[in-house]
Specification:
Elements lengths: L1 H5 L9 H32 L8 H17 L1 H33 L1 H13 L1
Keywords: Membrane, Transmembrane, Transmembrane helix
Length: about 120
């Protein structure tokens, strides 16, 4: 927005704020769709199903109800973001790469054998 103001686009394109909002809405929609897809695939793997499409609607209901419950009370949302979310995000940001590294060392020989077997075929 600031770049558009400093370029003085308003002289040429009136109501350029709507264009900026459209770009913002498209990025939010893409982020929501990808989050729903990832959550649905994770739910499918946890339940042991063969297709993720069966759990899209229940996953969407769970995520939206949790989001509505958190954001319904401003104090609850601020407490969650300042308290629990910090520990959750640090755990994911540090723990997940560490877990992948450890699993890579543990399953290194097995993965090499599978790659060699695939190349032989």
């Amino acid at each position: 927005m600031q770049m558009a103001r400093s370029a003085q686009i308003g002289y040429f394109v009136h109501r350029y704020e709507m264009i900026m909002i459209a770009f913002f809405a498209l990025s939010i929609l893409t982020q929501i769709m990808m989050s729903l897809l990832c959550a649905s695939v994770a739910m499918q793997k946890m339940l042991g199903l063969k297709d993720y499409r069966k759990v899209i609607i229940p996953t969407a209901i769970i995520l939206s109800s949790f989001g509505y419950w958190i954001n319904f009370d401003k104090n609850r949302a601020v407490d969650f973001l300042e308290g629990w979310w910090v520990y959750i995000s640090i755990g994911v940001a540090v723990g997940l790469p560490f877990l992948i590294l450890v699993m890579g060392f543990l399953f290194k020989k097995k993965l090499k054998k599978e790659i060699v077997a695939e190349e032989v075929k």
